[in-house]
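Quick one, tokens below:
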């Protein structure tokens, strides 16, 4: 047994493979940060005397969760955009320290950041400078002029992302070039805007964004770089369809999704990331611009109408919250929302683990407590299937381990 190994013992084990929980189980993470064994304690295969042990006292052992839609560098999206524009960029960037830690402590050990975070932020987490989840990054979303990614007002004033890497593109050639620029900047995934949205000043969520041909150019270019995938912000019916026909891996939001597009997604294996946390959170009327408030209230209703049918159609689902637009650190709220929208609780857990790993093309590394994957493990003090709604309070996540390192442990106080 190598030094630095960690055994979590005596817990109710949910391996994330869809099978029911088994009592008195454990997980052994090797010094390399990878899982060496998971199973019933009676079958612990070795003399584990030199291993660090944590008795999890019958609590539930699960794979670390994966949030496939966050904006870690967006600390407080409820902020008035005009006031936000007055803040120094360094302040906005450093707020990621708090967001990343809150996310990890909520039980999320991997995120896909779909706009805002850059390679330096990901490196700071990887190198242990700050505590946070493993990150896949999109850098800046690719968007049409006047679309969801264009925050320029008619006055010419631009209150948008202060990214070094601009994302506006018109036509297939520019879309391909922006894709290459994002990959050069370190993007693991490409984000596009297939429709307008709530927070952009001059468009509506059912305005179409990039065309099918433009989206297909991005998808092809990303695919030419070791099969990188494309995620599409898409809220209105037409843009959702364009995104799917253009070949994206996931539809984000999908509020006005219809049965024709669901059929197409089933055929192609396209994921739906419904971001129900934001779709069910009313904005603060006192803070956000009136135009955004009105759009949000209307589109929350549309989401309530259209998403339940899609979410029970058999289409692939992954957990994503849009944290950054909603508060960081309450990511597992999404699980209860999925259940409220008709998803079976165990399926919701899988949407936050194994299915999310599949969407991110990380199935060899994360998403279940299988031998060889990273030792990303969380322990909850309530049954995550029966009491799934409790998980939104991060105090119910009592232990968080990422790559075999303990980042949060409330058990030691017990
Ligand atoms: Zn988002």
């Amino acid at each position: 047994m190598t030094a630095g190994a960690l055994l979590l013992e005596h817990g109710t084990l949910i391996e994330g493979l869809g099978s029911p929980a088994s009592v008195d189980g454990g997980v052994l993470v090797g010094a390399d940060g990878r899982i060496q064994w998971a199973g019933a304690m009676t079958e612990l295969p070795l003399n584990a005397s030199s291993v660090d042990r944590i008795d999890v006292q019958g609590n539930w052992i699960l794979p670390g969760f994966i949030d496939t839609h966050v904006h870690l560098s967006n600390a407080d999206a409820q902020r008035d955009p005009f006031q936000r524009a007055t803040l120094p960029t360094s302040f906005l960037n450093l707020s990621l320290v708090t967001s990343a830690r809150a996310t990890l402590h909520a039980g999320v050990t991997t995120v896909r950041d779909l706009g805002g975070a850059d390679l330096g932020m990901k490196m700071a987490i990887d190198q242990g400078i700050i505590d946070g989840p493993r990150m896949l990054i999109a850098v800046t979303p690719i968007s049409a002029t006047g679309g969801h990614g264009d925050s320029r007002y008619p006055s010419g004033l631009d209150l948008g992302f202060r990214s070094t890497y601009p994302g506006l593109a018109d036509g297939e050639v520019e879309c391909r070039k922006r894709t290459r620029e994002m990959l050069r900047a370190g993007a693991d995934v490409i984000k596009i805007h297939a429709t307008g949205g709530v927070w952009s000043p001059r468009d509506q969520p059912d305005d179409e964004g990039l065309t099918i041909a433009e989206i297909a150019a991005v998808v092809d270019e990303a695919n030419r770089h070791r099969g990188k995938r494309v995620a599409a912000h898409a809220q209105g019916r037409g843009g959702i369809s364009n995104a799917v026909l253009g070949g994206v891996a996931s539809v984000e939001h999908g509020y006005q999704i219809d049965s024709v597009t669901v059929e197409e997604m089933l055929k192609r294996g396209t994921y739906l990331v419904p971001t129900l946390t934001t779709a069910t959170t009313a904005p603060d009327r006192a803070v956000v611009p009136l135009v955004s408030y009105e759009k949000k209230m209307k589109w929350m209703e549309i989401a309530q109408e259209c998403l339940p049918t899609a979410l029970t159609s058999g289409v692939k689902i992954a957990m994503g919250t849009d944290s950054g637009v909603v508060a960081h650190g309450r990511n597992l709220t999404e699980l209860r929302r999925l259940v409220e929208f008709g998803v079976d609780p165990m399926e919701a857990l899988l949407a936050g683990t194994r299915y999310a790993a599949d969407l991110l093309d990380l199935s060899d590394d994360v998403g279940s407590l299988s031998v060889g994957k990273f030792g990303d493990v969380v322990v909850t003090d309530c049954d995550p299937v029966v009491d799934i709604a409790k998980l939104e309070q991060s105090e119910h996540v009592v232990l968080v381990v990422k790559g075999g390192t303990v980042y949060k442990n409330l058990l030691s106080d017990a």
